[in-house]
Amino acid sequence: MTAKTRHFTANDLPEALAVFPLEGALLLPRARLPLNIFEPRYLAMIDDALRTEHRLIGMIQPRRPKRDDETDPPLYEVGCAGRITSLSETDDGRYLISLTGVQRFAVQEEIEGFTPFRRVAPNWPRFADDLGEEPDETSDEDREAFLELLKQYFTAASLSADWDALSKADYETLINAIAMLCPFSPQEKQALLEAESLAQREKDLQAMMRFVVADPAGGGDLQ
User: Which H, E and C letters describe 6-47, residue by residue?
Assistant: First the structure.
């Protein structure tokens, strides 16, 4: 799930960023997220991003579903910018794209304008370390313990996995793949996104998985 893409520096990051609000969708730096784009305003957003050198859009979660009396729901403070690294167009006009995570951002303010899609002024420096490489901070013993907990969680949550691929994945790929793919609640996904480090994200994952393992019938916060 970790992807190689163009190297970005702080100078490459834009002052305005189009955002795609999508509940339950999580993108993390250097990870890849496939998306099926079909709404006209988000098709326009992709077209607009492709005209830029950086080809970035921001994935961000809405805080709650849209109400009847509002145009757009409020957004969480933190999202993750991803570069469009693959795109194909279907016969019915949809875009099938892959985003490769570049850097998280904090929303300074939402930009008013005439585009059909939403844009924000991102605060990049808060997550400047995302442009570096995450070190492998786990021992073989800790990795085996994590994989054993993961197996218990998958059993409790009635999920299946390619265990051969997971066992061979590097530390960052393993942690981020589980964070992105498992059916955690939007609030839990947001907590995983905002974790200060990869090690903290692993700790948060372990706590979420242990909760489900302890009460598989309840399912924790997954529903």
Answer: CCCCHHHCCCCEEEEECCCCCCCCCEEEEEEECCHHHHHHHH
